[in-house]
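Model the whole thing, not chain by chain.
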Amino acid sequence: MTDHAFFMAKAYDQALASYQSGGVPVGSVLVRGGEIVGEGHNQRVQKSDPIAHGEMDCLRRAGRQRSYRDTVIYTTLSPCMMCTGTIILFKIPTVVIGECVNFGGNEQLLRDRGVNVIDLKDPRCIELMARFIRERPDIWNEDIAE
Amino acid sequence: MTDHAFFMAKAYDQALASYQSGGVPVGSVLVRGGEIVGEGHNQRVQKSDPIAHGEMDCLRRAGRQRSYRDTVIYTTLSPCMMCTGTIILFKIPTVVIGECVNFGGNEQLLRDRGVNVIDLKDPRCIELMARFIRERPDIWNEDIAE
């Protein structure tokens, strides 16, 4: 298993845990030098926290960092505009996404700002997200402010 | 006192409270129909939370909202790229900023995405932020990932 597949599986575990507790199934892992610095998942339902998308919860749990220039962030779903802005602000050089089939559109903005975007097109990530959107369109639309 | 001056004074109170507890002095207030829905301030120092900029803490404290299309967000300092992305995602139509002297640069991106940006050029906001940057450049640079 490649590093990317290994850490995406960790992000998927976070997404699945969120799904199993009734939440939005997006998970994320922050990695530095092959070690996990933080991991998390969407907390809109679980903590009634509208800013806690998967990537945001992961970065919060990682705590204060002097720099992110030597990190990689993994996320099961292509980043929304909030998470895109955060990745750009924090100068995270690489984002590995599980998929951009169920949601996407900010990949080019990330690339325009110098971020390396790698799409794994992960069938498990696609299937879990599609299932949630089908089952709970109300929560999903709230989460992306649609 | 105009509505904008009134709510910016509330945001300033948040910023000042953060400064007085050793934190980054950026405060924010979310308003709907003349009523405060949420208010907050930067929590990097107080909660070791790197994603809790003033606007983000305010939006978190406001809790889940079905829509932000009828809201105005006030912030003592021009939004960084994270907060800019969040305002765009949440479709908040108007952001009133205290100042963009000490930090700025995302106003045009906000306007390009249809957000109305109003700069109050508030002397108290400018002075408090300048004082903090002078006193704690280490924390300030960490907060904007410089």
